[in-house]
Amino acid sequence: MASTIQVRVDDDLKTKSDALFKDLGTDTTTAIRMFLTQALAVNGFPFEIKRTTANPYEALTEQEILDKLEKSREHAAQGIYKEAEEVSRDMRAKYGL
Fold first, then answer.
1. pTM (2 decimals)?
2. Is the dihedral of CA 29, 35, 97, 20 positive or negative?
């Protein structure tokens, strides 16, 4: 059985949060479910609440992608890289996964 939670928020907050979650690839209802699930998993607030000035999900231009690829190739040629296992371990530690 499913329960319903109703929360009153002002129109501006609803509009802005809907737009933010859409930009992140989800919707407000799913974001609330995610919050509640994680709160139970960690027995408290599940993450630091803040908004960065830069949006890491903004699409890159074609030139930005090409520049990043070139830099990656240069680093690889110089032996500057991390093994996939190390990257996964770092991400798990950083995000508590």
1. 0.46
2. positive
